[in-house]
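Minutes, structural biology subgroup

Action item carried over from last meeting: produce the structure token record for 2-dehydropantoate 2-reductase (Alkalibacter saccharofermentans DSM 14828). EB confirmed the sequence was re-checked against the source entry. Recorded below for completeness.
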Amino acid sequence: MKQMKFLFFGAGVLGSLYAAKLREAGMDVTLVARGSRYEDLKKHGVVLEDFKTKEQTSTKVRLVDHVPEDEYFDVCVVLIQKTQLHDALPALSSNPHIPSFLFMHNDAEGPQSMIDALGGERVLLGHVNAGGERDGHVVRFIVAEKMTMGELDGEVSERLQQIAGAFKAAGFPVVFSKNMDSWKRYHVAIALSLTGSIYMAGLCNYRLARNKEAIRKCWHGMREAFQVLRTLGYPIEPPKLRWSINFPDFIMVPLLQRVLGSELFDIGGVRHARNARDEMMHLRKEFKKLKEKAGIITPVLDEVEKYIDPDVPPAITD
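Output recorded by EB:
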């Protein structure tokens, strides 16, 4: 396949992981990093450790401390938290030679700010399929499922297939969504109830999984959030949510207990929640606007997501 030229904006867990793996797959990769992270990467390369196998690798990638303004890249993959987007857009827009920007952050607002900054024809939306944490210069990671990405108009374009092909070549399977805007909003709907429940349990997913009543509230909070989005006309995405949304508690509660009580969720969910509280508070504000617009009352979601506020102590301690 064609060697694509990638610019990765964001050198945290996911930016480091994808940049290293695509470089190992033969892609031309440049990674934007700053401060102490830049120095760590310059000294050690991108050091990855697989959570499952404990195998470590070190990959050298080209580093820059800002977006090159006059250099062509096939695509810029943006891997930052939503709280960082506003400040990042001017830097991203400084390069007019990049035809495609793939934004992978959580978002309940929609892509308008990205469209305004870059032009709609340059904006792609996606979602990651991995998680983990950084320990010094080492990135510990786990890959959980397939990546999702799509064009704003839902078409499976040639460029989308080329970008997906590069990620597939690096070992990351990809599926396409016809409505990534809805996909991201439903993901936030799930995340608010889920992370609120995790904070309610003192950032211990195993403690949460043992509490059936807390799991029931978590599920009911998700369903209330789904109803907000359905009222506003957002179709349910991804499709697998369509058959699960009406499942009764006696099916969903045990299922969620198994998922939330797993090591996979500890690594991919809890550790993100631990490091992304500011982002979750920001997303909570975004979703509150959707609730007000829909005119939907969400008592269970409100009860669960209040624990996102760090001033609210955990309710489940044993």
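Discussion: The chain has a mean pLDDT of 96.
Next step: EB to file the record with the rest of the batch.
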